[in-house]
Every structure is written in C-alpha cells, then in structure tokens.
Amino acid sequence: MLSLDFRQVASNEELMGYIDNGLYDLYDACFGVAPYFEDIEIDRLRSIFMGYLDNGFVYLCFNEDKIVGFMAAIPLPSQGDVYNIAKEHIVNADEYWYHADIGAAPQLRGKGIAKGLMQILLDKTPASSILMRTYENNEDSKGLHKRFGFNLLTHPDGTPVTQNVEGKRKSGHVEIDKRIFMTLVRE
Ligand SMILES: CC(C)(COP(=O)(O)OP(=O)(O)OC[C@H]1O[C@@H](n2cnc3c(N)ncnc32)[C@H](O)[C@@H]1OP(=O)(O)O)[C@@H](O)C(=O)NCCC(=O)NCCS
Known about the structure:
Layout: E1 4-8, H1 12-31, H2 42-55, E2 57-63, E3 66-75, H3 80-89, E4 97-104, H4 113-124, E5 129-135, H5 139-147, E6 151-152, E7 162-168, E8 174-185
Helix pairs in contact: 1-2
The chain binds coenzyme A.
Residues 30, 102-104, 109-115, 134, 138-141, 143-144, 147 line the site of coenzyme A.
C-alpha cells in the first residue's frame, strides 16, 4: 500500500538537495530509457529545474520519504522553442502555461502517482489553457493527458503539429526524435 505525499519545491536550495537525493536518479530512470534514451547530465538537470522554479512551479511525490514522482509547469512564453511553434497554431499562446515535465518511478507505475500530480497541475496552474509536448509514440503520456481532457494539437487538415527535438542519447550519439503537442482549454 502506497502512502503518497505531494509537496511543492519551495526554493533553489531545497531543489538542489532533492536533485542530489533521488530526483536525478528518478529523472534518469524515466527518460534515460525507451522511448527517450536521453543522456542528461546532472548540471543540465539542475539548470532545467531551476528554470522551472524561477518561472513556475515544481511538485514532487514522495512514498515513505523517497522521491517517486515529479511534475513542473511554467508560462508557455518562457519555453522559447515550444512557444515559437505554439504561437503559429494557437491565437492566444502567450496566455498558455506549459506542462514541462512529469514522471513516475518505473516500479510504481499504474498506481496513481501521475494522476495525483496531474490533479495538482490542473489546480495550481494560473491559466485556463495548458500545452504539453511528448514523444509521438509515448502512449502512457498521451493516455494520461487524454484522461485529463487534453487533445492533440493539429493542423487544419487534422494532422498533428510536430517538432523534431535533438538530444544526446545514452548511445553517445545526438539523435532527433519527433514530438507531438496536446492542449487543455478550460472555460
Ligand atoms: C506517463 C507516466 C508519468 C504515468 O505515470 P503513472 O504514475 O504510471 O500514471 P498513473 O498510474 O497515475 O495514471 C495512469 C493513467 O494514465 C492513463 N494511461 C497510462 N498509460 C496508458 C496507456 N498506455 N494507454 C492509455 N492510457 C494510459 C490511464 O488513464 C491511467 O489511469 P487509469 O489506469 O486509472 O485509467 C509514467 O509512465 C512515466 O513516468 N513515464 C516516463 C516519463 C514520461 O514519459 N513522462 C511524460 C513525458 S511528456
């Protein structure tokens, strides 16, 4: 039986402690494997999460004081590459927030960690509309976001808006993968 506890990260100092004590390992366990195989160095993760904290918010999920989930959101204009694509397809893109990250410990998947984090995302985001981006074949992420009301961002002909994202892989190579976008528009 899990005893999940969701906490907002309050400061950079707290964030650095979490990164050193479980968050980096969890991030690597989420994105260092299929379908991403991302090779993220700890300093890069520090700077990514500091950006989240400076502009938006970060929540962590704990089980028995161990970090088992993470989630972050920021105003969409602060995520330059995504914002530039979004504003070509969304009239009021500058009013959106960007759901920048979510992950759950592999050994505890399917037990509600991400659903808890998604509920916090919906409750705490100070904007009515949210954009997210994921790998085009990430069925877990697409299913999770669909469940919370997100829809695929498409061109007028119904084909998905996509972005090719370049990143260093565990293999040591820099590779490109294709991402899709989903939006949640609330009244
Ligand atoms: C996506 C991820 C965060 C889900 O975490 P989780 O804690 O296992 O998810 P939860 O148990 O809280 O909820 C899963 C819900 O999402 C949906 N879902 C999950 N996998 C799904 C799939 N393959 N197909 C359809 N829906 C799916 C379901 O609605 C499910 O709820 P239900 O079982 O009650 O119907 C997790 O798989 C993960 O960390 N993946 C690696 C990192 C990643 O890809 N992050 C997203 C980047 S955008």
